[in-house]
Amino acid sequence: MTLLLLAGTGEARRIAARLAQTGYPVIASLAGATRDPEALPVETRIGGFGGDEPFRDWLGHAGIAAILDATHPFASRISQRAARIAREQRLPYCLLLRPEWRPEAGDRWVFLEQESEAVDHIPAGARVFLATGRQTLAQFANLSACDLTLRQIDPPEQAFPFANGRFLVGRPPFSVEDEMALFTKLKIDWLVVKNAGGEAPRSKLIAARRLGLPVAVINRPIQPDAPQVETVEQALSWVESL
Fold it and tell me: What's the rounded mean pLDDT across residues 211-221?
């Protein structure tokens, strides 16, 4: 019985390590969002499957008997397809979905349904730090009156698409002190994040709170109607129950 682990998060890395220790048959899959991902301790494939039918074919050829989805909460297209095809193929499927971030005392958050709504809250002339990834950068085109900095893991392969911004290369994790120093150095007025959840990425939110910065928080997309767990331990328990 081989498990497909849809990876790309810290939780997926910890699951892979635990399964490798026990010798559980597993194949991890990375979407290829970063050019040089840290190696996982299990057999790993990198890149998309090429659509529904190639995914179905691959599942059969690889002898996949269950799917554990530990992708990013905003990788909704991957999760929706995996859940749907697992249901069609009658394969057990479970989504590891870490809890959302929620505002605490001192936070100055506004919630957005999509990136393009940021312009409704962020004033012209603001210096904005985008911690949202390069995939959705085009949706911030309407922030043309602001100064934009977008952080990404990989060095950029092309110039920033807008005249009013730049890329900043950095690989997490970042401490609260690191984030505070960076936001202060860049004279940031607004932080924009996706509500990914998780403890390590929370450091930028704590830094914003301590600096009194407003934060635009993009709500998560709709998740699959499928079994869900919230922690690595719960996910491993699900695997053990198969």
Answer: 98
Q: What is the token pair recorded at 172?
A: 């997490």
- Whether 28 shows a pLDDT value over 90: the answer reads yes
CB contact at 8 A, 115 and 93: no
CB 7 within 8 Å of CB 30: yes
pLDDT digits (tens, 9 = 90+) for 166-215: 999 998 889 999 999 999 999 999 999 999 998 888 999 999 999 999 99
Sign of CA pseudo-dihedral 70, 75, 80, 82: negative
Buried b (16+ CB within 10 A) or exposed e, 169-202: eeeeebebeebbebbeeeebbbbbbbbbbeeebe
Mean pLDDT of 111-137: 96
| Cα–Cα distance for residue pair 80/88, rounded to 1 Å | 12
In angstroms, the CA 215 to CA 101 distance is 12
DSSP secondary structure, 130-172, as one string: EES-GGGGGGGTT-TTSEEEEEESSPPSS--SSTTEEEEE--S
- Mean pLDDT over all residues of the chain? 95
HSE-up (13 A, CA, CB side) for residue 29 = 22
- Beta bridge partners, 43, equal 27
**For the chain, how big is the Rg over CA atoms in Å?**
19
pLDDT for residue 26: 98
**Could you tell me the domains of the chain?**
2-98+222-241 (3.40.50.720), 109-218 (3.40.50.720)
